[in-house]
Amino acid sequence: MSKKDKKNIDKEQVETSQAETVEIEEQVTEEQTKEEKLEAELKQEKDKFLRLFAEFENYKRRTSKERIELFSTASEDVMKTLLPVLDDFERALTHIEEDKEAEELRKGVLLIYQKLIKTLEQKGLKAMEVNKGDAFNADNHEAITQIPAPSDDLKGKIIDIVEKGYLLGEKVIRFPKVVIGQ
């Protein structure tokens, strides 16, 4: 073999090895891009999963809160229809107390009234505490009229309570109706 042939063979081997190196580098680059694509897809799917999981947790919390609220106020309509009955009992007791001859009747009406109140309280009904002389608050009271205040210290304050207010749990189902001083 001549030197020229040897050089050509060496040149061919170098070119072949360079071509193989380039081909291997391309394969490595191709595999790296595939791996990067797969990693990006995996990251995207993990992100979707985490968002979906968080959304589901929020949904569970929201529905359980709504369910608890529903149970606590499920009897709201029934309670609202019974409030006039309570008012009637209170008016009856007020008038019976004036009549001394109806003592036995007063005891019976009072017993029934107390039993009804106790039953409704067990179901979450509470009377709102409002007293004469309290400051009027439009968020908690319903003013039905204003009258001239008998004294300066009663201006803007509650002078009379016309109708009691009631809460069912923490929700106001009827605001107290009051007369305020002007």
UniProtKB/TrEMBL annotation:
Q: Where is this region: Disordered?
A: 1-38
Q: Which Pfam families match?
A: GrpE
* Stated role: Participates actively in the response to hyperosmotic and heat shock by preventing the aggregation of stress-denatured proteins, in association with DnaK and GrpE. It is the nucleotide exchange factor for DnaK and may function as a thermosensor. Unfolded proteins bind initially to DnaJ; upon interaction with the DnaJ-bound protein, DnaK hydrolyzes its bound ATP, resulting in the formation of a stable complex. GrpE releases ADP from DnaK; ATP binding to DnaK triggers the release of the substrate protein, thus completing the reaction cycle.
Subunit and interaction comment: Homodimer.
Species: Algibacter luteus
Q: Which family does it belong to?
A: Belongs to the GrpE family.
Q: Which GO terms describe its cellular component?
A: cytoplasm
**Gene3D superfamilies registered for this protein in UniProt:** 3.90.20.20, Head domain of nucleotide exchange factor GrpE (2.30.22.10)
Q: Name one GO molecular function term.
A: unfolded protein binding
Q: What is the protein's name according to its record?
A: Protein GrpE
Q: Which UniProt keywords apply?
A: Chaperone, Cytoplasm, Stress response
Question: By its UniProt entry, which SUPFAM superfamilies does this protein fall under?
Answer: Coiled-coil domain of nucleotide exchange factor GrpE, Head domain of nucleotide exchange factor GrpE
Q: Which domain of life is it from?
A: Bacteria
**GO biological process, alphabetically ordered:** protein folding
